[in-house]
Amino acid sequence: MNTIYALASAQGKAGVSVIRISGPDAHASARVLCGNLPEPRYSAMRSLRNAAGDLLDHALVLCFKSPNSFTGEDVVEFHVHGSVSVVRAVLEELSKQEDTRLAEPGEFTRRALENEKLDLAQVEGLADLIDAETEAQRKQAVRVLSGALGARVDGWRSKLIRAAALLEATIDFADEDVPVDVSPEVCALLEDVTADLENEISGSFVAERIRTGFEVALVGAPNAGKSTLLNRLAGREAAITSEIAGTTRDVIEVRMDLQGLPVTFLDTAGLRDAEDEIENIGVSRALERARGADLRVFLAEPGESLMLPPQEKDIVLHPKADISNVSGSVGISGKTGAGVQELITRIQATLQDKTALAGLATHERHRVAMERAFESLQAAQAIVGDGPELYDIAAEELRTSIRALEALVGRIDVESLLDEIFSSFCLGK
Fold first, then answer.
1. What is the CA radius of gyration of the chain?
2. Tally of structural domains, the chain
3. Which residues in 82-238 belong to E strands, given as ranges?
4. Is there a single domain that holds both residue 240 and residue 175?
Protein backbone atom coordinates (compact mmCIF):
# COMPACT_ATOMS: atom_id res chain seq x y z
CA MET A 1 0.00 0.00 0.00
CA ASN A 2 1.10 3.56 -0.64
CA THR A 3 2.26 5.78 2.15
CA ILE A 4 -0.35 8.50 2.58
CA TYR A 5 -0.32 11.92 4.24
CA ALA A 6 -2.83 14.68 4.99
CA LEU A 7 -3.69 17.48 7.34
CA ALA A 8 -5.45 15.66 10.19
CA SER A 9 -6.74 18.76 11.98
CA ALA A 10 -9.20 21.36 10.74
CA GLN A 11 -8.47 23.48 7.70
CA GLY A 12 -7.49 27.12 8.21
CA LYS A 13 -5.44 29.10 10.69
CA ALA A 14 -5.05 27.56 14.15
CA GLY A 15 -2.71 27.47 17.12
CA VAL A 16 -1.49 23.99 16.16
CA SER A 17 -2.06 21.87 13.06
CA VAL A 18 -1.45 18.12 12.81
CA ILE A 19 -0.07 16.49 9.67
CA ARG A 20 -0.30 12.70 9.65
CA ILE A 21 1.75 10.23 7.58
CA SER A 22 0.82 6.53 7.48
CA GLY A 23 2.12 3.55 5.53
CA PRO A 24 5.18 1.36 4.97
CA ASP A 25 7.46 4.32 4.22
CA ALA A 26 6.03 6.70 6.83
CA HIS A 27 9.18 6.76 8.96
CA ALA A 28 11.51 7.14 5.99
CA SER A 29 9.31 9.90 4.57
CA ALA A 30 9.38 11.79 7.86
CA ARG A 31 13.17 11.49 8.15
CA VAL A 32 13.55 13.34 4.87
CA LEU A 33 12.05 16.42 6.57
CA CYS A 34 13.28 16.15 10.15
CA GLY A 35 16.28 13.80 10.24
CA ASN A 36 16.24 11.30 13.08
CA LEU A 37 12.92 10.36 14.66
CA PRO A 38 12.05 9.95 18.34
CA GLU A 39 11.49 6.44 19.65
CA PRO A 40 8.04 4.99 18.84
CA ARG A 41 5.22 6.42 20.98
CA TYR A 42 7.48 9.20 22.22
CA SER A 43 7.59 12.80 21.05
CA ALA A 44 10.40 15.29 20.47
CA MET A 45 10.94 18.70 18.94
CA ARG A 46 12.47 18.64 15.46
CA SER A 47 13.24 21.20 12.76
CA LEU A 48 11.45 20.50 9.48
CA ARG A 49 13.45 21.42 6.40
CA ASN A 50 12.91 21.23 2.65
CA ALA A 51 15.23 19.60 0.14
CA ALA A 52 17.31 22.78 -0.10
CA GLY A 53 17.82 22.81 3.67
CA ASP A 54 15.54 25.80 4.31
CA LEU A 55 13.71 25.76 7.64
CA LEU A 56 9.97 25.17 7.29
CA ASP A 57 8.98 25.09 10.95
CA HIS A 58 9.82 23.71 14.37
CA ALA A 59 7.47 20.81 15.04
CA LEU A 60 6.58 18.32 17.73
CA VAL A 61 7.11 14.91 16.14
CA LEU A 62 5.33 11.73 17.31
CA CYS A 63 6.28 8.32 15.98
CA PHE A 64 4.22 5.09 16.07
CA LYS A 65 5.37 1.62 15.04
CA SER A 66 3.05 -0.87 13.35
CA PRO A 67 0.72 -2.30 14.58
CA ASN A 68 0.52 0.05 17.57
CA SER A 69 -1.07 3.01 15.81
CA PHE A 70 -4.50 4.27 14.81
CA THR A 71 -4.22 2.79 11.31
CA GLY A 72 -2.22 -0.29 12.33
CA GLU A 73 0.64 0.91 10.12
CA ASP A 74 3.80 2.90 10.77
CA VAL A 75 2.62 6.44 11.54
CA VAL A 76 4.32 9.78 12.08
CA GLU A 77 2.60 12.99 13.13
CA PHE A 78 3.99 16.51 12.75
CA HIS A 79 2.41 19.00 15.17
CA VAL A 80 3.29 22.28 13.47
CA HIS A 81 2.33 25.90 14.04
CA GLY A 82 -1.14 26.33 12.59
CA SER A 83 -0.24 28.72 9.80
CA VAL A 84 -1.83 28.06 6.43
CA SER A 85 1.53 28.70 4.75
CA VAL A 86 3.41 26.32 7.09
CA VAL A 87 0.94 23.51 6.47
CA ARG A 88 1.06 24.13 2.72
CA ALA A 89 4.87 24.07 2.69
CA VAL A 90 5.10 20.77 4.64
CA LEU A 91 2.46 19.09 2.49
CA GLU A 92 4.25 20.28 -0.66
CA GLU A 93 7.52 18.69 0.50
CA LEU A 94 5.74 15.40 1.24
CA SER A 95 4.15 15.45 -2.22
CA LYS A 96 7.62 15.43 -3.84
CA GLN A 97 8.51 12.03 -2.39
CA GLU A 98 8.07 8.86 -4.41
CA ASP A 99 5.42 6.32 -3.34
CA THR A 100 3.83 8.95 -1.10
CA ARG A 101 0.50 10.53 -1.93
CA LEU A 102 -2.23 12.70 -0.43
CA ALA A 103 -4.79 10.64 1.48
CA GLU A 104 -8.37 10.39 0.27
CA PRO A 105 -11.23 11.40 2.60
CA GLY A 106 -11.53 8.83 5.40
CA GLU A 107 -8.56 6.79 4.17
CA PHE A 108 -6.76 6.71 7.52
CA THR A 109 -9.88 5.30 9.17
CA ARG A 110 -10.43 2.87 6.29
CA ARG A 111 -6.95 1.49 6.83
CA ALA A 112 -7.75 1.12 10.53
CA LEU A 113 -10.75 -1.00 9.49
CA GLU A 114 -8.76 -3.07 7.01
CA ASN A 115 -6.05 -3.68 9.61
CA GLU A 116 -8.68 -4.71 12.19
CA LYS A 117 -8.01 -1.82 14.53
CA LEU A 118 -11.70 -0.89 14.29
CA ASP A 119 -14.84 -2.75 13.20
CA LEU A 120 -17.38 -1.12 10.92
CA ALA A 121 -19.69 -0.14 13.78
CA GLN A 122 -16.75 1.59 15.48
CA VAL A 123 -15.99 3.45 12.25
CA GLU A 124 -19.56 4.74 12.21
CA GLY A 125 -19.21 5.63 15.88
CA LEU A 126 -16.12 7.67 15.05
CA ALA A 127 -18.00 9.52 12.31
CA ASP A 128 -20.85 10.20 14.75
CA LEU A 129 -18.38 11.46 17.37
CA ILE A 130 -16.89 13.92 14.88
CA ASP A 131 -20.41 15.16 14.05
CA ALA A 132 -21.64 15.20 17.68
CA GLU A 133 -23.09 18.54 18.76
CA THR A 134 -24.60 17.67 22.15
CA GLU A 135 -23.52 15.75 25.24
CA ALA A 136 -25.99 12.91 24.60
CA GLN A 137 -24.64 12.48 21.07
CA ARG A 138 -21.06 12.50 22.35
CA LYS A 139 -21.74 9.87 25.01
CA GLN A 140 -23.55 7.61 22.57
CA ALA A 141 -20.85 7.91 19.90
CA VAL A 142 -18.07 7.21 22.41
CA ARG A 143 -19.89 4.09 23.57
CA VAL A 144 -20.11 2.76 19.99
CA LEU A 145 -16.52 3.80 19.22
CA SER A 146 -15.31 1.92 22.30
CA GLY A 147 -16.55 -1.32 20.71
CA ALA A 148 -19.62 -1.97 22.87
CA LEU A 149 -21.82 -2.94 19.92
CA GLY A 150 -19.11 -5.17 18.43
CA ALA A 151 -18.71 -6.94 21.79
CA ARG A 152 -22.46 -7.50 21.97
CA VAL A 153 -22.45 -8.96 18.45
CA ASP A 154 -19.53 -11.25 19.32
CA GLY A 155 -21.50 -12.59 22.27
CA TRP A 156 -24.54 -13.34 20.10
CA ARG A 157 -22.34 -14.89 17.43
CA SER A 158 -20.63 -17.23 19.92
CA LYS A 159 -23.98 -18.50 21.17
CA LEU A 160 -25.27 -19.10 17.66
CA ILE A 161 -22.09 -20.90 16.63
CA ARG A 162 -22.48 -23.15 19.69
CA ALA A 163 -26.11 -23.86 18.78
CA ALA A 164 -25.23 -24.61 15.16
CA ALA A 165 -22.39 -26.92 16.28
CA LEU A 166 -24.78 -28.91 18.46
CA LEU A 167 -27.23 -29.34 15.61
CA GLU A 168 -24.53 -30.33 13.12
CA ALA A 169 -23.03 -32.82 15.58
CA THR A 170 -26.41 -34.53 15.75
CA ILE A 171 -26.64 -34.55 11.95
CA ASP A 172 -23.09 -35.72 11.14
CA PHE A 173 -22.33 -38.00 14.06
CA ALA A 174 -25.63 -39.58 14.89
CA ASP A 175 -23.92 -42.90 15.76
CA GLU A 176 -21.20 -41.34 17.91
CA ASP A 177 -21.17 -40.43 21.59
CA VAL A 178 -23.06 -37.13 21.37
CA PRO A 179 -26.15 -35.94 23.23
CA VAL A 180 -29.25 -37.64 21.92
CA ASP A 181 -31.42 -34.57 22.40
CA VAL A 182 -29.63 -31.25 21.98
CA SER A 183 -32.82 -29.24 21.54
CA PRO A 184 -33.07 -27.95 25.16
CA GLU A 185 -29.62 -26.33 25.06
CA VAL A 186 -30.11 -25.12 21.49
CA CYS A 187 -33.50 -23.60 22.33
CA ALA A 188 -32.08 -21.88 25.41
CA LEU A 189 -29.26 -20.34 23.37
CA LEU A 190 -31.64 -19.17 20.65
CA GLU A 191 -34.09 -17.71 23.16
CA ASP A 192 -31.30 -15.70 24.82
CA VAL A 193 -30.11 -14.23 21.53
CA THR A 194 -33.64 -13.62 20.24
CA ALA A 195 -34.62 -11.71 23.38
CA ASP A 196 -31.45 -9.60 23.23
CA LEU A 197 -31.95 -8.85 19.55
CA GLU A 198 -35.58 -7.86 20.09
CA ASN A 199 -34.58 -5.39 22.82
CA GLU A 200 -31.72 -3.97 20.76
CA ILE A 201 -33.91 -3.53 17.68
CA SER A 202 -36.49 -1.67 19.78
CA GLY A 203 -33.81 0.53 21.35
CA SER A 204 -32.22 1.33 17.99
CA PHE A 205 -35.05 3.72 17.09
CA VAL A 206 -34.34 5.89 20.13
CA ALA A 207 -30.57 5.64 19.64
CA GLU A 208 -30.96 6.81 16.05
CA ARG A 209 -33.02 9.77 17.27
CA ILE A 210 -30.25 10.75 19.67
CA ARG A 211 -27.83 10.66 16.75
CA THR A 212 -30.01 12.62 14.31
CA GLY A 213 -32.02 14.69 16.81
CA PHE A 214 -35.49 14.54 18.35
CA GLU A 215 -38.33 16.49 16.76
CA VAL A 216 -40.87 18.49 18.77
CA ALA A 217 -43.79 19.92 16.79
CA LEU A 218 -45.70 23.03 17.82
CA VAL A 219 -49.30 22.36 16.80
CA GLY A 220 -52.45 24.45 16.94
CA ALA A 221 -54.98 26.54 15.07
CA PRO A 222 -53.94 29.59 13.03
CA ASN A 223 -52.82 32.60 15.12
CA ALA A 224 -52.44 30.49 18.26
CA GLY A 225 -48.99 31.91 18.94
CA LYS A 226 -46.86 29.02 17.65
CA SER A 227 -44.37 31.20 15.75
CA THR A 228 -44.06 33.63 18.67
CA LEU A 229 -43.34 30.68 20.96
CA LEU A 230 -40.76 29.29 18.52
CA ASN A 231 -38.99 32.66 18.45
CA ARG A 232 -38.96 32.74 22.25
CA LEU A 233 -37.50 29.23 22.41
CA ALA A 234 -34.89 30.04 19.77
CA GLY A 235 -33.98 33.41 21.27
CA ARG A 236 -34.20 35.03 17.84
CA GLU A 237 -36.67 35.90 15.09
CA ALA A 238 -36.69 32.50 13.42
CA ALA A 239 -40.27 32.77 12.15
CA ILE A 240 -42.38 35.64 10.81
CA THR A 241 -45.16 36.64 13.18
CA SER A 242 -48.21 38.78 12.56
CA GLU A 243 -51.82 39.20 13.63
CA ILE A 244 -52.91 37.73 10.29
CA ALA A 245 -53.99 34.12 10.68
CA GLY A 246 -52.20 31.62 8.45
CA THR A 247 -48.90 33.51 8.21
CA THR A 248 -46.88 30.27 8.51
CA ARG A 249 -47.29 28.17 5.38
CA ASP A 250 -44.29 25.83 5.49
CA VAL A 251 -42.61 23.97 8.36
CA ILE A 252 -39.93 26.10 10.05
CA GLU A 253 -37.20 24.21 11.90
CA VAL A 254 -34.99 25.43 14.75
CA ARG A 255 -32.33 23.11 16.17
CA MET A 256 -31.44 23.45 19.86
CA ASP A 257 -29.44 21.73 22.59
CA LEU A 258 -31.70 20.94 25.56
CA GLN A 259 -29.53 19.76 28.44
CA GLY A 260 -27.37 17.70 26.08
CA LEU A 261 -30.22 16.41 23.93
CA PRO A 262 -30.40 17.44 20.25
CA VAL A 263 -33.90 18.79 19.60
CA THR A 264 -35.43 20.33 16.50
CA PHE A 265 -38.54 22.43 17.12
CA LEU A 266 -41.03 22.50 14.25
CA ASP A 267 -43.29 25.51 13.74
CA THR A 268 -46.15 24.19 11.65
CA ALA A 269 -48.94 25.83 9.71
CA GLY A 270 -52.14 26.48 11.63
CA LEU A 271 -54.52 23.53 11.41
CA ARG A 272 -57.85 24.39 9.82
CA ASP A 273 -59.94 23.64 6.74
CA ALA A 274 -58.54 26.27 4.38
CA GLU A 275 -59.86 27.20 0.95
CA ASP A 276 -56.51 28.61 -0.17
CA GLU A 277 -54.57 25.94 -2.12
CA ILE A 278 -51.16 27.00 -0.78
CA GLU A 279 -52.40 27.03 2.81
CA ASN A 280 -53.91 23.57 2.32
CA ILE A 281 -50.51 22.28 1.26
CA GLY A 282 -49.05 23.84 4.41
CA VAL A 283 -51.70 22.19 6.58
CA SER A 284 -50.99 18.80 4.96
CA ARG A 285 -47.27 19.17 5.62
CA ALA A 286 -47.98 20.27 9.18
CA LEU A 287 -50.06 17.17 9.85
CA GLU A 288 -47.44 14.89 8.29
CA ARG A 289 -44.52 16.34 10.27
CA ALA A 290 -46.51 16.51 13.51
CA ARG A 291 -47.50 12.85 13.24
CA GLY A 292 -43.87 11.87 12.68
CA ALA A 293 -42.51 14.01 15.51
CA ASP A 294 -41.29 12.49 18.77
CA LEU A 295 -43.40 14.91 20.81
CA ARG A 296 -46.13 17.42 20.08
CA VAL A 297 -46.89 20.65 21.95
CA PHE A 298 -50.51 21.68 21.36
CA LEU A 299 -51.56 25.30 21.80
CA ALA A 300 -55.30 24.97 22.19
CA GLU A 301 -58.18 26.52 24.08
CA PRO A 302 -59.99 24.24 26.54
CA GLY A 303 -62.56 22.17 24.68
CA GLU A 304 -61.18 23.16 21.28
CA SER A 305 -61.64 20.52 18.55
CA LEU A 306 -58.26 19.50 17.13
CA MET A 307 -57.57 18.07 13.66
CA LEU A 308 -54.81 15.95 15.20
CA PRO A 309 -55.65 14.32 18.55
CA PRO A 310 -52.92 14.47 21.24
CA GLN A 311 -51.14 11.24 22.08
CA GLU A 312 -49.87 10.02 25.43
CA LYS A 313 -46.96 12.22 26.64
CA ASP A 314 -47.99 15.07 24.31
CA ILE A 315 -48.26 18.48 25.97
CA VAL A 316 -51.42 20.61 25.72
CA LEU A 317 -51.21 24.27 26.76
CA HIS A 318 -53.57 27.21 26.80
CA PRO A 319 -52.05 29.81 24.39
CA LYS A 320 -51.50 33.57 24.85
CA ALA A 321 -51.64 33.43 28.62
CA ASP A 322 -50.58 37.09 28.70
CA ILE A 323 -53.99 38.24 27.43
CA SER A 324 -56.32 35.46 28.56
CA ASN A 325 -56.47 33.42 31.72
CA VAL A 326 -58.47 30.19 31.80
CA SER A 327 -58.93 28.58 35.18
CA GLY A 328 -57.95 24.95 35.42
CA SER A 329 -55.64 25.02 32.38
CA VAL A 330 -51.89 25.41 32.03
CA GLY A 331 -51.08 28.48 29.96
CA ILE A 332 -48.07 29.77 28.08
CA SER A 333 -47.09 33.00 26.38
CA GLY A 334 -44.35 33.25 23.79
CA LYS A 335 -44.69 37.03 23.94
CA THR A 336 -43.90 37.45 27.65
CA GLY A 337 -42.16 34.15 28.28
CA ALA A 338 -44.68 33.03 30.88
CA GLY A 339 -44.60 29.24 31.21
CA VAL A 340 -41.78 28.80 28.67
CA GLN A 341 -39.21 27.51 31.15
CA GLU A 342 -41.77 25.08 32.57
CA LEU A 343 -42.45 23.86 29.02
CA ILE A 344 -38.74 23.31 28.38
CA THR A 345 -38.46 21.34 31.63
CA ARG A 346 -41.38 19.10 30.64
CA ILE A 347 -39.93 18.49 27.18
CA GLN A 348 -36.55 17.61 28.67
CA ALA A 349 -38.11 15.17 31.13
CA THR A 350 -40.19 13.47 28.42
CA LEU A 351 -37.27 13.06 26.04
CA GLN A 352 -34.95 11.92 28.83
CA ASP A 353 -37.44 9.13 29.56
CA LYS A 354 -37.19 8.08 25.92
CA THR A 355 -33.38 8.03 25.97
CA ALA A 356 -33.44 5.50 28.81
CA LEU A 357 -34.65 2.98 26.20
CA ALA A 358 -31.79 3.65 23.77
CA GLY A 359 -29.76 0.68 22.59
CA LEU A 360 -26.24 0.41 21.20
CA ALA A 361 -27.26 0.25 17.53
CA THR A 362 -27.44 3.79 16.17
CA HIS A 363 -27.93 3.43 12.40
CA GLU A 364 -30.67 2.02 10.21
CA ARG A 365 -28.06 -0.34 8.72
CA HIS A 366 -27.53 -1.86 12.16
CA ARG A 367 -31.25 -2.33 12.65
CA VAL A 368 -31.76 -3.96 9.23
CA ALA A 369 -28.94 -6.44 9.93
CA MET A 370 -30.38 -7.31 13.34
CA GLU A 371 -33.87 -7.71 11.91
CA ARG A 372 -32.50 -10.09 9.29
CA ALA A 373 -30.75 -12.09 12.01
CA PHE A 374 -33.88 -12.05 14.17
CA GLU A 375 -36.07 -13.42 11.35
CA SER A 376 -33.65 -16.28 10.69
CA LEU A 377 -33.51 -17.09 14.41
CA GLN A 378 -37.28 -17.25 14.63
CA ALA A 379 -37.33 -19.62 11.67
CA ALA A 380 -34.63 -21.78 13.28
CA GLN A 381 -36.54 -21.95 16.55
CA ALA A 382 -39.66 -23.18 14.79
CA ILE A 383 -37.71 -25.78 12.82
CA VAL A 384 -35.86 -27.15 15.87
CA GLY A 385 -39.21 -27.79 17.48
CA ASP A 386 -40.20 -30.01 14.53
CA GLY A 387 -37.55 -32.63 15.38
CA PRO A 388 -34.02 -33.81 14.44
CA GLU A 389 -35.01 -34.66 10.88
CA LEU A 390 -34.98 -30.93 10.05
CA TYR A 391 -31.87 -29.94 12.02
CA ASP A 392 -29.90 -29.38 8.80
CA ILE A 393 -32.39 -26.70 7.74
CA ALA A 394 -32.30 -25.13 11.21
CA ALA A 395 -28.48 -25.06 11.08
CA GLU A 396 -28.61 -23.21 7.76
CA GLU A 397 -30.98 -20.62 9.24
CA LEU A 398 -28.47 -20.13 12.06
CA ARG A 399 -25.66 -19.62 9.56
CA THR A 400 -27.81 -17.00 7.81
CA SER A 401 -28.32 -15.26 11.13
CA ILE A 402 -24.59 -15.34 11.90
CA ARG A 403 -23.76 -13.85 8.50
CA ALA A 404 -26.20 -10.99 9.12
CA LEU A 405 -24.49 -10.19 12.42
CA GLU A 406 -21.04 -10.40 10.85
CA ALA A 407 -22.15 -7.94 8.19
CA LEU A 408 -23.23 -5.56 10.97
CA VAL A 409 -19.64 -5.21 12.21
CA GLY A 410 -18.13 -5.34 8.71
CA ARG A 411 -16.62 -8.79 8.59
CA ILE A 412 -18.39 -9.87 5.40
CA ASP A 413 -20.49 -8.52 2.52
CA VAL A 414 -19.95 -4.81 3.15
CA GLU A 415 -17.73 -3.71 0.26
CA SER A 416 -20.64 -1.92 -1.38
CA LEU A 417 -21.16 0.12 1.81
CA LEU A 418 -17.60 1.28 2.39
CA ASP A 419 -17.40 4.03 -0.22
CA GLU A 420 -20.67 5.52 1.02
CA ILE A 421 -19.60 5.40 4.68
CA PHE A 422 -16.13 6.83 4.19
CA SER A 423 -17.32 9.58 1.87
CA SER A 424 -18.76 11.30 4.94
CA PHE A 425 -15.31 11.59 6.54
CA CYS A 426 -13.18 14.67 6.15
CA LEU A 427 -9.78 14.63 4.53
CA GLY A 428 -7.16 13.63 7.09
CA LYS A 429 -9.43 11.27 9.01
1. 29
2. 3
3. 100-102, 214-220
4. no
Residue type, 282: G
Amino acid 8: pLDDT: 93
Mean pLDDT of the chain: 86
The rounded distance, in Å, linking the Cα atoms of 9 and 370 is 35
C-alpha 119, offset from chain centre = 15
pLDDT of residue 385: 83
For residue 386, how many other CB atoms are within 10 A of its CB? 11
Residue of 280, 248, 281, 278 lying closest to 266 (CA atoms): 248
Question: Contact, 251 vs 200, CB < 8 A?
Answer: no
pLDDT value, residue 208? 93
Whether residue 287 is predicted with pLDDT greater than 70 in this model: the reply is: yes
Q: Is 157 within a domain?
A: yes
- What's the mean pLDDT in 187-197? 94
Asked if residues 428 and 417 have their Cβ atoms less than 8 Å apart, the reply is: no
* Res. 245: pLDDT tops 50: no
For 36, which DSSP code? Answer: S
- The whole domain housing 261 covers 213-355
